[in-house]
Design brief:
There is one protein chain. The chain is 83% helix and 0% strand. By secondary structure, the chain is mainly alpha-helical. Helix 2 (22-32) runs antiparallel to helix 4 (54-84), helix 5 packs antiparallel against helix 6 (124-133) and helix 9 packs antiparallel against helix 10 (193-228). The radius of gyration is 18 Å and the shape is globular. The two termini are 27 Å apart.
Length: 240
């Protein structure tokens, strides 16, 4: 029997997997992205103290994040599949497997980023469409290893016929993430405006990066189940 692919079930599973692995997933994000997070903190502190130079720190932090996030995404792709397989998710194993696929994933992330950025510049709709079509590119690069351009093509194939559902997952996860980050920042801001901004920024980067790995991996998994009738052990055999 072919599985029904629905936005609600994937959104629910995304947060279920994330919170079940809250400690390892967030530690991986925090450790890998630490240089970028430190620079972002310095940028906020400098701007608050009117020292200036915060924009430069923030720009360097954003650049660092581009090059470090693929390691997180590749690592958590492995972690998500380990969770689905009911196997232990360890930080060392996640990072070890992530390092093996970091550079192909970096190439995919850069191309996806360029495609979506150009799409949003030209008109918002093409940017949204690009993000939906290429939603499975990173997990495809990690699992199937077809090369950078092959991963983009594979994502286009998998999402074909299910793009409204994929959009629903991306939109739903994004809205919930914004609400979580805003709520924490608001609570922290009651104690200190500056530290509220810092905590919200750090939390937003860590959680956002974790969810950007978890949701697409589950989209990829459920699309392959729905379209190819393949089970998780067959998909994740590449890690064994």
């Amino acid at each position: 029997m072919q599985e029904r692919f629905s936005s609600g079930s994937v959104i629910g599973q995304t947060f279920s997997v994330y919170f079940a692995n809250f400690v390892p997933f967030n530690l991986i994000c925090g450790v890998v992205l630490a240089p970028a997070l430190i620079l972002e903190t310095m940028a906020i502190l400098r701007e608050n103290e009117t020292i200036g130079g915060g924009d430069l720190y923030s720009a360097v932090a954003s650049l660092l994040q581009i090059f470090l996030a693929p390691l997180v995404q590749a690592s958590l792709t492995y972690g998500v599949f380990q969770h689905i397989r009911n196997k232990e998710v360890t930080i060392g194993d996640c990072l070890g497997n992530g390092l093996k696929r970091m550079f192909p994933v970096l190439g995919v992330v850069i191309l996806v980023g360029l495609a979506t950025t150009v799409g949003f510049i030209l008109c918002i709709i093409p940017g949204i469409l690009a993000s939906v079509i290429l939603a499975c590119a990173v997990p495809a690069a990690v699992i199937e290893r077809p090369g950078v351009f092959g991963a983009l093509t594979r994502s286009q194939e998998l999402t074909d016929g299910h793009r409204w559902t994929v959009f629903g997952v991306i939109f739903g996860v994004g809205i919930i993430n914004i609400v979580l980050v805003f709520s924490l920042g608001l609570i922290a801001g009651l104690m200190s405006l500056v530290w509220g901004m810092i905590i919200a920024t750090i939390f937003g980067v860590i959680v956002g990066t974790a969810l950007q790995a978890t949701a697409p991996t589950l989209i990829y998994y459920h699309l392959r189940k729905a379209k190819e009738s393949i089970d998780v052990e067959e998909i994740a055999a590449v890690f064994d």
